[in-house]
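Page 37, top half.
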Amino acid sequence: MNHNNRGLSFSDIDQDWKLALDPDNVFWGVIPKDNGAFHLPDGMINLYKEERGHLDTELHDFRFNADLNSIYIDPTDRCNANCPYCYIPSKIRKSGDQMTEKGLNTVLKKIASHFKNARKKPVIVFHAAEPLLVKDILFEAIDKFSNKFLFGIQTNATLLKKKDVEFIKKRRIGIGISLDAPDANGNNISRTMIKGSGNFEKAVQALDWLDGYKGLNVISTITKYNVNRLSELVRFLHKKKVPCVLLNPVRVTRKPALNLKPDEKEFANALINAVETAMYLSVKSSRQIVVGNFANVILAIISPSARRMMCDISPCGGGRTFLTITANGDMIPCGEFIGFKKFSGGNIFKTSIAEAMKSRPFREIRSRTVEKIQECNTCDFRHICGSPCPAEMYARGNMYQKAKFCESYKEIIKYAFKLIAENKVKYLLRNGEFGVQKRLEMLKFPFLMAVE
């Protein structure tokens, strides 16, 4: 890549396309090559000069001035599974705390009080180990606070009943189902249960009950065991009418997960093939399936402040746009920090969310920016990738290291630019979401730019 200090940098996407990009504000143009040469389109530099200040401000505000809008609540530390890559230490998962009905109501009241002047309903996601171990108090709380919050649940589905699914659908609750492979043998290697072999059968039953529900996501953790089966998994989930799947590379926050990390090049190629499969199936069947984490890369390019997943922006969303409340009430920047006591910003039963947001641990996480990370600070893609994750890097001895999947991210981002150049964005994002049509109307050939 050629760098021009502050200004446009030029690099090859592939043999057909050249990228012009200002890494500091994600102004970009994808320019076709002609016999290996390329020419800047008329008006591109003028447009860049016109929009540069606006885009600088927009990205800065998104990075440093975005409001807290989501709370992850871990109503129990415990889990009925024993996944080898879990970021929660096994001792906590076996004998950790659980919230009572009174405790959960107190937490939700304090959250509601914090957001009393918010323009939009905040999002509450019941997460952590296995939240449905205390599903009775969750469902009661959802009914009680439905006028205050938008709710989501992340689960391995082993405790879901058909009546629970009807409750979720009726109240329009978002639900994420954990599933790592398209068959029991592949899935249950990583999604192991304390009793029984794995969650495959129950997860698939839940997908059948949900029957294409719009609020459904499948979350897959990608390891060396399933990395070569991603396209196969996408095909399987498409048949099950799943609208969105996240193919997330394993976080190596805890040492056991290091042994499961897939090869970076292998992961990038597998994800790209899975996206190709998803596009093919969406077009062929007229029933869409989206690879959610790749869709977020597309958004990071065409409309940076519209992205939903806040791991790939610097600083990340932990302790900034979201936080996690553990079963004993500790407020931490993100669930990945559960194993690190020093990152508690206070206990919600004793102090406020506002105080946690101002706490030293939260400020420490917000201070980790790509400008302070060697290699990231000169990388063209630094504000598209964000170099995740601070917890993962802290666990590896230094929070100010580049991302473990750095090389994968570079290949995936280049591929994203290629698909944008080929005018395939409409197949990569959910229909009607993120202002897609508005953004598509702004994409002009022979060059394309992210301009609000």
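Page 37, bottom half:
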Amino acid sequence: MQYDPHVEVGRFGQLDVCECIATQCRCGARPPFQYWDDDSQRCWCPCQSARRRLANVKELFRQADMPSRFRFKFRGDYSDLGPDGRSLQVARCVRPVLNIMTALVDDDREPQRGYLLLGPPGTGKTLLACILLNELMLRRARPGRFVNLSRKFFQQLRDTYSQDSEHYGKTFQILEHMCNIPYLILDDFGVQRGTEWETEMLYDLVDARYGDENFTIVTSNQSRAELEQVAGGRVLSRLVEMCYVVDMQGQDYRQFLIS
């Protein structure tokens, strides 16, 4: 399976089967992926299994709730260079992670330890997290989800207490889904208002994923000292055990765009 960025219409490219599968196709990529052989017998096309897997992966990408800016970003989309062609200082921190990521997505074993990406704004934390998630969904065909803690997550949970909401009474279902999904990004960790209710919801989520060893990527603009204040340090304690900690100090890429 591969991502083809070149399209004539639309903003994004498309996921497709690899060339080696496409050359064997005899059904014209039409469901149910069968063809008539020389003896007028209906047969399954050699591409059938790959195209069903492709349909599943497309649905996974649709359900991942990835921001448009980071949708379909893969290993080749990370650049060590700024807009002016100069090497970015933060690249020294990220390059080892990209090397680990290559081994991770190409390994047959499921990843158990995630990443805690710490650093100031504009150092590529969210981009790197999304690349990791996209690569895993593409290669493994297993579900992943992007959750921005500063926006929709807590509001969605609050809506479950409102009788006027379509999510009314679904607090447990939403949390259970987040706890059990194989791959999860928690973006902007530490920016929530820090109410007792929010802290407890966040702790329950991290604790469940910690206990089940589910792959989790966390990004934060906060320092480790600041994160230690969340839930009395209970959340950070779990994160540093379940994740590789990557200190992404460096230049703000966005500052290049306005200079």
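Margin note: The beta strands are 2-4, 14-16, 34-36, 42-44, 114-118, 144-148, 183-187, 215-220, 243-247.
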